[in-house]
Amino acid sequence: MLESSLLAQLIAFRKDRDWEQFHTPKDVAISLSIEAAELLEWFQWRNHDEVEAMLESDKREHLEDEIADVAVYLSYLCHDLGIDLNQAVKKKMEKNAAKYPPDKVKGRADKYNEYS
Amino acid sequence: MLESSLLAQLIAFRKDRDWEQFHTPKDVAISLSIEAAELLEWFQWRNHDEVEAMLESDKREHLEDEIADVAVYLSYLCHDLGIDLNQAVKKKMEKNAAKYPPDKVKGRADKYNEYS
Amino acid sequence: MLESSLLAQLIAFRKDRDWEQFHTPKDVAISLSIEAAELLEWFQWRNHDEVEAMLESDKREHLEDEIADVAVYLSYLCHDLGIDLNQAVKKKMEKNAAKYPPDKVKGRADKYNEYS
Amino acid sequence: MLESSLLAQLIAFRKDRDWEQFHTPKDVAISLSIEAAELLEWFQWRNHDEVEAMLESDKREHLEDEIADVAVYLSYLCHDLGIDLNQAVKKKMEKNAAKYPPDKVKGRADKYNEYS
């Protein structure tokens, strides 16, 4: 997912701090879901126009940090479980494509909702 | 994050179905957090040994699918907001490195907990 | 939180199935957050008008079921940890009232956002 | 769910601050899921013994505050949607009881996992 040199840096970061011991797959999955909630918090109580304005403000950096946190835990999880993320996404998209043929679901919110 | 050809495929997938209209940044962030919870659900009620056994079983594919779903929404969000994920992670890791010098936090769960 | 006879029923439900063994506080907290995500899923991709329409439709029962699931895990957690929920909310509301005096925060989204 | 006088206090709290305007059902559901993640954060990286020790420490109050936050948003949501939580839980438990007869699922983690 991330550049390989950056992934190597993440791995070194936790090794240098002797923090691998905390990274069971279950605890990393917990952390990923907590970080996803913190990312969502950035949008909390905001309507579309307010979000657009915040994206142009100095609050953008905070959003980028939250997105980075999600990516970091996702990268640790894939690394630790030996999952090739590109491969996993490819396989999932093939299933999605078979399940949702464009001509049957185009622009339909109901189908989209079933999909997601 | 993903290979550029795969990201192009994701973008085409939603365009072919006329589904961009549903993808406001806030709704994509909601979806990311829902998918992270579905990923966590794979680990629900399982202890470490049970997780290890499931990783070797045919339940592994389900886990990979859930991880793929998280990656898909993360990719849409970064694409739509013009965020370079490698860049965002680099900046965040610099902050983390400054905040948690190895000699002060090594192997300490309390510091790790503050960190995360 | 729930009527005491209903709470007794929840406790009997898991005892009759010998399921207390799975209910560590951490796993119940995981389940609570998963159920909260499933509740949120009901609202996923919907705008305000669509939500209002769904509330009047036969999809309302599904929402009530998801809300019930959240309440069930919250009730188990409070029961198992010996927490009086009314008491906990009272104490938290006192802190909130001290932190957010009406004359300083009235109608201000920015203060509201700091608050939540 | 909460004592009726306490619920009245919650309703007054947001009215006094003119904050009802932010409380669409969807945004309250978002907040509920964020608070559930913050509750889960209390357990993050902790094993069972560490959780037990924290429950006896001065960190317990923080946990009670997070549980209160979940209950507050759950209460607002039920109030705003006119949902009787006891009634909703009763109906859900009837469905669960029909779906999981004790003699078929007793002590079985696999059935429990299907259940949750």
UniProtKB/TrEMBL annotation, chains A, B, C, D:
<dbReference type="GO" id="GO:0047429">
    <property type="term" value="F:nucleoside triphosphate diphosphatase activity"/>
</dbReference>
<dbReference type="GO" id="GO:0009143">
    <property type="term" value="P:nucleoside triphosphate catabolic process"/>
</dbReference>
<protein>
    <recommendedName>
        <fullName>Nucleotide pyrophosphohydrolase</fullName>
    </recommendedName>
</protein>
<feature type="region of interest" description="Disordered">
    <location>
        <begin position="94"/>
        <end position="116"/>
    </location>
</feature>
<dbReference type="InterPro" id="IPR025984">
    <property type="entry name" value="DCTPP"/>
</dbReference>
<dbReference type="Pfam" id="PF12643">
    <property type="entry name" value="MazG-like"/>
</dbReference>
<dbReference type="InterPro" id="IPR052555">
    <property type="entry name" value="dCTP_Pyrophosphatase"/>
</dbReference>
